[in-house]
Amino acid sequence: MKTEFYQTLNRQAQALLEGEDDLIAAMANFSALLNDNLEDLNWAGFYIKRGEQLVLGPFQGKVACTRINMGKGVCGTAAAENKTQRIADVHDFDGHIACDSASNSEIVIPVRQDNKVVAVLDIDSPLLNRFDQDDQIGLENMVKSLETCLFG
């Protein structure tokens, strides 16, 4: 059932992004789509890699940290390792950066151009263990669609 949900959501993302090659515009609509369709979220958005930092990009949710150093927190770890981070309880993650004290679980997915991280998709939930393997696969496939739209 979750697989079908993400396939449908991915088709919506592809239709929404078709023909759009502007990073900010695509990320803005992508984060809005996720925020409108995924339950139990309190933040969905992007951090864009600028040198050795991630800088806040388009998002939906409460005020957020503006800059995150590479390798720091869940976002910086995902970017530095070029690997999705799915964290059941952020309070157990060594070095977690608490931008919103209401966040309890998080998934962060690298956005790549030519296999190099250019941004990360960050999604937070007030629920513990909100994201499972099906969420990870579905969201990673959606990010692949975003990458294809933006970078070919």
Under CATH, the topology is which? Beta-Lactamase
Structural class: alpha+beta
* Radius of gyration based on Cα positions: 14 Å
Catalogue the unreliable spans: none
What is the mean pLDDT? Answer: 95
Q: Class in CATH?
A: Alpha Beta
- The figure for the number of domains is 1
Strand order of the largest sheet: 3-2-1-6-5-4
Helix content: 25-40%
- Rough shape? globular
Cα-to-Cα separation, first versus last residue = 30 Å
Strand content bin: 25-35%
CATH architecture: 2-Layer Sandwich
CATH superfamily: GAF domain
**Secondary structure tally: strands:** 6
Please summarize the sheet with the most strands.
6 strands, antiparallel
Helix-strand topology string: HHEEEHEEEH
Tally of helical runs:
4
Can you describe this structure in just a few lines?
The protein is of the alpha+beta class.
Output the keywords.
single chain, 152 residues, alpha+beta, Beta-Lactamase, six-stranded antiparallel β-sheet, 6 strands, globular
